[in-house]
């Protein structure tokens, strides 16, 4: 082999393996959360929610459940550990809901986020993002601290499918993208691990939207310390042209 061919082969090899040595979040160009693009849903009373519009968030709103770092733009969401489960329902999550609702057949849709789990609840499980519809959640991402992984839960009417979507870095960092396409596919990327799934049949009719979430799962004893807290360092919702 000539020297020029050897050099080209070496460059090609480095180009192929180089990105694999760098975590996916290291290659991102983070976009701080744009608070004005979302509506905040936060606990208000037993199994009730308070809605805070984006213009109020952009003006500097804060509460026990929502804080924004003015220097970095990072947003911290916290659940209410004092709210118990009632009749099988979990306490209200703290949610940033996108300002656009859409049908998956009409437009591609992506939500990309980077976050840290600041505080785990007692069961070590935190809902961190989802596609929501008027009929309920379509796809949810749940961080599992016991197993250091993120579980994707796909809801299809009366059935539910669970897959391991990716691992959680030791520093509790998670980067994820949830995407839907008019072709009928649902794509989930968690810390560089990609999963491509069919869109649930039950999601083909209702209007949908993205939610960035700090939410607990299952029953918990009301306690100040038994809550979840998540800081989103970047968050972007995008609807590219079909």
UniProtKB/TrEMBL annotation:
Lineage: Bacteria, Pseudomonadati, Pseudomonadota, Alphaproteobacteria, Acetobacterales
Signal peptide range: 1-26
Keywords: Signal
Name of this chain's protein: Alginate lyase 2 domain-containing protein
Biological source species: Gluconobacter roseus NBRC 3990
SUPFAM superfamilies referenced in this protein's UniProt entry, alphabetically: Concanavalin A-like lectins/glucanases
């Amino acid at each position: 082999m000539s020297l020029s061919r050897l050099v080209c082969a070496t460059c090609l090899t480095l180009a192929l393996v180089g990105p694999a040595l760098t975590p996916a979040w290291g290659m991102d160009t983070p976009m701080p959360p744009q608070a004005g693009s979302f509506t905040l849903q936060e606990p208000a009373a037993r199994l009730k929610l308070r809605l805070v519009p984006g213009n109020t968030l952009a003006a500097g709103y804060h509460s026990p459940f929502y804080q924004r770092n003015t220097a970095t733009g990072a947003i911290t969401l916290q659940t209410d550990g004092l709210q118990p489960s009632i009749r099988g329902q979990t306490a209200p999550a703290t949610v940033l809901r996108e300002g656009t609702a859409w049908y998956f057949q009409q437009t591609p849709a992506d939500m990309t986020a980077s976050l840290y789990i600041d505080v785990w609840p007692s069961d070590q499980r935190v809902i961190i993002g989802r596609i929501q519809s008027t009929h309920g959640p379509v796809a949810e991402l749940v961080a599992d601290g016991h197993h250091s992984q993120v579980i994707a839960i796909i809801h299809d009417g009366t059935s539910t499918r669970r897959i391991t979507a990716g691992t959680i870095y030791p520093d509790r960092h998670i980067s994820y993208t949830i995407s839907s396409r008019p072709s009928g596919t649902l794509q989930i990327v968690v810390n560089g691990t990609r999963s491509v799934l069919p869109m649930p049949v039950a999601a083909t009719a209702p209007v949908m939207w993205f939610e960035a979430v700090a939410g607990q799962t299952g029953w918990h004893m009301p306690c100040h310390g038994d809550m979840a807290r998540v800081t989103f360092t970047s968050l972007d919702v995008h609807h590219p042209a079909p």
